[in-house]
Specification:
Elements: E1 2-7, H1 15-24, E2 27-32, H2 35-41, E3 49-52, E4 55-56, E5 59-60, H3 61-71, E6 77-80, H4 85-92, E7 97-101, H5 107-119
Parallel strand pairs: 1-2, 1-3, 3-6, 6-7
Antiparallel strand pairs: 4-5
Helix pairs in contact: 1-5
Length: 121
């Protein structure tokens, strides 16, 4: 079973997304409500994917992604962002972000993300 760590201080915005992950797929999710909780969580069993909200408890998602990368460069990450795809590419370059997600991701994004991960070696 795959494990996704959802990093957000606004859990209700992710309910459709997490419900789709857990009910329609073999995915288990856990929640980190701060950058510190996310970094602590990846110190143990490494999740298959970390999904990071645009801002979490006053810290930008990009900064959290950078911190995770510095702690363990092998962690797959997806990031919520309102930036255009070009702006997002520029802002996240070098962070190894797999995919940009829209605010309040839903079941369609969950399915798309699962399909992307299944194609990875």
């Amino acid at each position: 079973m795959a494990h996704f760590l959802i990093v957000t201080s606004n859990e209700p915005e992710f309910l459709k997304f997490t419900d789709a992950l857990t009910s329609e797929n073999s995915v288990e999710t856990s929640l980190a409500a701060s950058s510190k909780e996310a970094l602590d969580a990846i110190s143990g069993i490494i999740p298959d994917l970390v999904v990071i909200d645009e801002e979490v408890d006053g810290t930008s998602g990009l900064e959290i992604a950078r911190s995770i990368l510095m702690k363990n460069a092998m962690v797959n990450q997806a990031l919520v962002s309102r930036l255009s795809s070009d702006e997002f590419h520029e802002a996240s370059e070098g962070l190894g972000i797999l995919v940009q997600l829209p605010p309040a991701p839903d079941a369609a994004q969950a399915k798309s993300l699962i399909a992307l991960l299944e194609k990875m070696p």
